[in-house]
Write a structure and sequence with these properties.
Keywords: Hydrolase, Signal. Belongs to the peptidase S33 family. This protein has a 10-stranded mixed β-sheet, with helices on both faces. The N terminus and C terminus are likely disordered. The chain is of the alpha/beta class. Strand 9, helix 17 and strand 10 form a beta-alpha-beta unit. Helix 5 crosses helix 6.
Length: 560
């Protein structure tokens, strides 16, 4: 999913010291959001040198699968750093850094598991989850077994999470000093000057150099194709003859790569909020499309806020709400709230409204209170947290490495400037912040791959389930339809007139019924089905605010 620019980014919290109550609260927030967000800011575009997947990688997978089958995973109590209580267990699986040289360096991926809670005879295997990113970890996923929305699935399946290569304790990578990710306050420029563009170019060059210098020759091996191969090794290490998988956001993309590479190993797969897998759109074009979609979802939020002007007093029309936002940004530029919340932090906080409407009441309330003279809620929701710096930096590094390695990107600034200047005229809210995030890919020092053509023919793959909302901004709806066209026999379930990124896991009973029918009984609609939208959130009165639930920091929506 997309994040603020890589030189300074706030994201979901890093692990806190035990007992870590704040982290567990935020993890619970992420889980209840929908178990799948994150978004991806995916995209691709221009001709460039690169490598296509070949027989060497296939041989490496076969070798690694043989090791993993023999070794399995020695599950035991989780390390304190994971803050995962019993009955959750943790272990590691080894994978080749380079599948073309499987006898060379190996790296360890951390894995978590809670066993199925039902009768032994009812167990259907392991359900592996990936939340997206790139850069997201699902080590917390076994905790979902304790949530009501996942109770029936948790009775039938072991819930398995893991940290993909580069993430967390799985051979982590880095591109800059972690403290850089929480530097604040920052600007939010809608119409950058030529001087500002030159500064951003230099920062992108420096960031790309930092990735190469801090990660070294291993940098080229952090790719979506290798994530798909690692998933096959994980399947073998778990002792599962076939894979049952739930991928959200970016997790749908390398899940689709897995389905293309290993169709005979698929048992059941769910793709929640799908990335458009068209090789011509991985990743540059997808990012442009995402910025356009965010403008529409930002409008949805402003329409909702205006409809509840009696609560928030932000304005009775979307234009008036926009004016309130701009007034706050101008005031923050003059005097940052708490010394750390400037226009950039405000924009990052409000960006979360495009991912999930559960943020609408909180963000509207914080904005309203700030304009009324009380900055406390805005500071609480938007200020960067230094304790998250290490995890934030690591997550951004993985995001950048994977997307830059995966595909060709335009290497001339003129293309970026033309495309984003044109787009910002129609979609100013996210366009330039998204461009700055991805600009290091224009100056990337590692070789790029050519994206694999995601496609399976009739009968090659069991039926797979695609879930999507029509107004999803992070992974626009056209991506779900494109994925269905490419995976023969796949089924698409659409939540109409809704826009949450990640639609499974408790927010829509209709969607969850299709999910459970599929995962528990293998039943799907014939080809397509629709669900009515979940209810929009109720406004929270500033005079009678209920006790707030767990808050997720601004920036990239948690990959849950």
């Amino acid at each position: 999913m997309r994040t603020p620019d890589p030189a300074r980014r706030t994201t979901r919290p890093a692990p806190a010291p035990p007992p870590g109550p704040r982290r567990r609260l935020r993890t619970a927030a992420a889980l209840t959001t929908a178990l799948g967000s994150l978004a991806v800011s995916a995209l691709a575009a221009a001709p460039a040198e690169g490598r296509a997947p070949g027989p060497a990688g296939e041989y490496g997978v076969a070798v690694a699968v043989r090791w993993a089958t023999e070794a399995g995973i020695a599950f035991g109590p989780c390390p304190a750093a994971e803050e995962l209580p019993a009955p959750v267990e943790c272990g590691t699986v080894q994978v080749p850094l380079d599948y073309a040289a499987p006898d060379g360096r190996r790296i360890s991926l951390t894995v978590s598991r809670v066993r199925a809670g039902g009768a032994p005879g009812d167990r259907q295997g392991a359900l592996v989850f990936n939340p997206g990113g790139p850069g997201g970890s699902s080590m917390y996923f076994p905790l979902a077994a304790g949530l009501a929305a996942w109770k029936r699935l948790a009775a039938a399946y072991d819930f398995v999470g893991y940290a993909p290569r580069g993430v967390g304790r799985s051979a982590p990578i880095s591109c800059q000093e972690p403290a850089r990710t929480v530097e604040a306050p920052t600007p939010a420029v809608v119409r950058p000057s030529e001087a500002e563009k030159r500064e951003r170019i230099e920062r992108a060059r420096a960031y790309a150099r930092g990735c190469a210098e801090r990660t070294g020759p291993a940098l080229r091996h952090y790719t979506s194709l290798n994530n798909a191969r690692d998933l096959e090794v994980l399947r073998a290490a778990l002792g599962e003859p076939e894979l049952t998988y739930l991928g959200a956001s970016y997790g749908t993309y390398f899940g689709a790569l897995y389905a293309t590479l290993f169709p005979s190993r698929v048992r059941r797969m769910v793709f929640d909020s799908a990335v458009d897998p068209d090789p011509e759109r991985i990743w540059y074009v997808n990012n442009l499309n995402q910025s356009l979609a965010f403008e529409q979802r930002w409008l949805d939020f402003k329409i909702w806020a205006a409809r509840h002007d009696d609560t928030y007093r932000l304005g009775v029309s979307p234009g008036a709400v926009q004016a309130s936002y701009e007034k706050a940004a101008a005031r923050l530029a003059e005097e940052p709230a708490g010394g750390t919340v400037g226009p950039g932090e405000l924009q990052a906080a409000m960006l979360s409204t495009g991912y999930h409407d559960r943020y609408w009441p909180r963000r509207a309330g914080a904005l309203a209170e700030y304009l009324a003279g009380d900055p406390a809620k805005l500071i609480e929701q938007a200020a960067p947290d230094p304790s998250t710096a290490k995890e934030a930096e690591n997550s951004t590094a993985v995001y950048t490495a994977v997307e830059c390695n995966d595909a060709p990107w335009p290497e001339d600034w003129a293309t970026w400037d033309r495309d984003n200047s044109r787009l910002a005229g129609a979609a100013p809210f996210e366009t330039w912040s998204n461009a700055w995030l991805n600009l290091p890919c224009a100056y990337w020092p590692a070789p790029r791959q050519r994206p694999l053509e995601v496609r399976t023919g009739p009968g090659e793959l069991p039926p797979v389930l695609i879930l999507a909302s029509e107004r999803d901004a992070a992974t626009p709806y056209e991506g779900a339809k494109e994925l269905q066209r490419r995976l023969a026999g796949s089924v698409l379930v659409t939540e109409r007139d809704a826009g949450n990124h990640g639609v499974s896991g408790g927010q829509n009973d209709c969607v969850d019924t299709y999910l459970e029918d599929y995962l528990l009984r293998g039943v799907t609609p014939v080809r397509r089905a629709t669900c009515a939208p979940h209810p929009e959130p109720d406004p929270v009165s500033l005079d009678r605010r209920t006790v707030p639930g767990p808050e997720v920091p601004a920036g990239r929506t948690p990959a849950v």
